[in-house]
Specification:
Chain lengths: ~230, ~230
């Protein structure tokens, strides 16, 4: 069995243990009661989504610097997994916000930034789908991934000035100790699961990119776009 | 290096001159964009309703949204003319620093947007019954810095999507999420000029805008060569 499958199984196991503890062992959250238990899913998703985007950013820098196919495949796989986690995060956030804040959506900086982050990185995927020449696609998606990543803190601070309402970041220091263990376990589970997904997706992307290089016979439509674009 | 190669600044000026000349020769385009932006202002009013107070309050937002929509047209244009007949390849073969091409084009696009803003602003003033509470000259910094905020990353993205068949769709899709901070700061600072600034927040928003410009102009200047060489 490939190494990432073991990592994925470990991730699933940790997530199960973390959520069992979170749902049945840890005390209910002081203010929000049982609703607060979504914390064990929401917070790890947020952490891991950011880590995965960081991986995408590093891969983009690597791809731009080296022009190697492996980095480009990592950009593709990390952005895709990041977008999935990001959308999951938005969904969980809306589910949590309704009973606690009374609304699905507020213009809180972190929420708004998360939404903008999602559309930015979805843009990378759309851009990749639209470009047919491998080298051009690699450069364009790397450049855009770098921009999307750099813009995250800029967006965050500008929206924060614009309006604010959100509890401070949850980290092991801000939550009570019986909640720390399930949170940590679930977070590592999520991290391993994401690693598994990225690795699997990377293999697929790499195989596809390699095949493209070996057989550059593009379908007629793509070839036409190539001609129209002036080649080079 | 060629000994007689002009300095970076002179190269940038040459590129600006070229771009603005192309734009000047096709004046109909600027007029079309101005009309488009004004039409959008009218549409915003229809969408919101004829309540003058509400329109007045949100005028800065409408103006910037109209400029933003129109900007995608200038930006796509600025590379459309280059990719037609392989002009960009010719430009890249000249002994011109690639950064000069980027900064020249970005500055020319900024200038066009500023001109567009000055075409749109008076119309907005009439439509929404606006008056500048803080002195009219205060409109200049938000407009120039805001236009630069759209044009800086916009020029790079236009180059990035120049060879995409669906550029008209891709450019806004990629650009709009990125320029949210610039939009927020430009609208806020313009609004402060129009509505008055009792808390003295103007300078903070201008600093946000200037920092945004600084970050994304430098990043774009750094990465532009990679994009066009490909």
């Amino acid at each position: 069995m490939k190494w990432e499958n073991w990592v994925g199984l470990l991730g699933l196991a940790l997530i199960s243990v973390g959520h069992y503890q979170g749902l049945f062992v840890a005390p209910p959250e002081a203010m929000m009661g049982d609703v607060g238990r979504i914390l064990y899913a929401h917070v790890p998703t947020a952490w891991v989504a950011l880590v995965v985007y960081l991986v995408a950013f590093v891969a983009a820098v690597g791809s731009l610097g080296s022009g190697k196919r492996g980095w480009d495949a990592l950009v593709e796989s990390a952005v895709e997994v990041g977008v999935v986690l990001n959308l999951l995060l938005l969904f969980q956030g809306a589910v949590w916000a309704k009973p606690t804040w009374g609304v699905f959506w507020t213009w809180d900086p972190r929420l708004t930034t998360t939404a903008i982050m999602a559309v930015s990185f979805i843009g990378v995927l759309v851009l990749r789908a639209m470009l047919n020449r491998p080298a051009q696609r690699a450069v364009a998606s790397a450049v855009y991934t770098i921009f999307a990543f750099v813009s995250v803190p800029v967006v965050y601070f500008s929206v924060k000035w614009w309006k604010t309402l959100h509890q401070p970041f949850s980290s092991p220091e801000t939550v009570d100790s019986p909640m720390v263990t399930p949170l940590r376990v679930a977070a590592f589970g999520m991290l391993f699961l994401a690693t598994f997904l990225i690795a699997r997706r990377w293999r697929l992307a790499y195989a596809k990119l390699s095949r493209e290089d070996e057989a550059p016979d593009l379908p007629p439509a793509a070839a036409a776009i190539r001609l129209e674009g002036g080649g080079a | 290096m060629i000994a007689s190669r002009p300095g970076l600044v002179r190269q940038i000026v040459a590129v600006i001159h070229k771009d603005l000349l192309v734009e000047w020769r096709g004046q109909a385009r600027l007029l079309a964009m101005g009309t488009y932006a004004v039409t959008l202002l009218l549409l915003f009013s229809f969408a919101v309703g004829p309540d003058t107070k509400t329109l007045q309050q949100h005028a800065a937002g409408y103006v910037w949204l109209a400029l933003l929509s129109a900007s995608t047209m200038t930006l796509t244009q600025s590379f459309r003319v280059e990719t037609e007949a392989g002009a960009l390849e010719a430009l890249l073969m000249l002994p011109v620093d690639h950064r000069a091409i980027y900064f020249g084009k970005a500055l020319a696009n900024t200038a066009l947007l500023v001109v567009l803003a000055f075409l749109v602003m008076p119309v907005a003033a009439i439509l929404f019954d606006l008056s500048a509470a803080e002195g009219l000259y205060w409109l200049l910094p938000p407009i120039v810095l805001g236009a630069a905020g759209l044009a800086g990353p916009g020029t790079l993205y236009a180059a990035l999507t120049a060879r995409v068949a669906a550029q008209q769709l891709m450019l806004p899709l990629l650009l709009f999420p990125l320029i949210v901070p610039a939009l927020v700061a430009a609208v806020k600072s313009t609004s402060l000029v129009l509505q008055g600034d009792p808390m003295g927040q103007m300078s903070s928003w201008l600093i946000v805008l200037a920092s945004f410009d600084l970050i994304f102009w430098s990043l774009s200047g750094l990465l532009f060569a990679k994009v066009v060489e490909e």
